[in-house]
């Protein structure tokens, strides 16, 4: 999925199998955030959906769901269905349930950490 900056049109979604449902002017896109615990996934989602930053954000248990609708220049609306997954190891087995059928996966990590997670096998 991409937005053509010259036209403001969304491209790359052709059918519901890719995590999105499209009619002429309304798209629904499943988006999932993946990454270790404490890297800022929930903060990114809250900033995108509510325009807020919460430095005291709580740890996500399982997953949380939020949505955000965006209007493009050509009057197309895109509703992002956002799944913020838990980063703790004990919830790793549940992650595939959340990212199955997603059109977009955002992998969040701490660039200051020597340890880089490779636990999310998306393939």
Report what the structure shows.
The two termini are 18 Å apart. The protein has a domain at 27-107: 3-Layer(aba) Sandwich (Rossmann fold). It has helices spanning 41-50, 95-99, and strands at 2-4, 9-11, 20-22, 26-34, 63-71, 77-85, 104-107. The strands form two sheets. Strands 3, 4, 5, 6 and 7 form a five-stranded mixed beta sheet that branches. The protein has a two-stranded antiparallel ribbon with strand order 1-2. It has two helices and seven strands; from the N terminus they run E-E-E-E-H-E-E-H-E. Helices cover 12% and strands 33% of the residues. The longest helix has 10 residues, at 41-50. The protein is mainly β and 123 residues long. Keywords: Nucleotide-binding. InterPro entries: Ephrin_RBD, P-loop_NTPase, Small_GTP-bd, Small_GTPase. It comes from Populus alba x Populus x berolinensis. Residues 1-33 form the Ephrin RBD domain. GO terms for molecular function: GTP binding; GTPase activity.
């Amino acid at each position: 999925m991409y937005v053509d900056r010259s036209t403001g049109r969304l491209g790359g979604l052709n059918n519901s199998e890719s995590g999105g449902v499209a009619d002429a002017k309304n798209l629904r896109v499943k988006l999932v955030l993946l990454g270790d615990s404490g890297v800022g996934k929930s903060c990114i989602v809250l900033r995108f959906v509510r325009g807020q930053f919460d430095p005291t954000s709580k740890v996500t248990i399982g997953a949380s769901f939020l949505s955000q609708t965006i209007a493009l220049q050509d009057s197309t609306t895109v509703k992002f269905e956002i799944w913020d997954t838990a980063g703790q190891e004990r919830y790793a087995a549940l992650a595939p349930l959340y990212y199955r059928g997603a059109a977009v996966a955002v992998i969040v990590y701490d660039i200051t950490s020597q340890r880089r997670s490779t636990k999310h096998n998306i393939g």
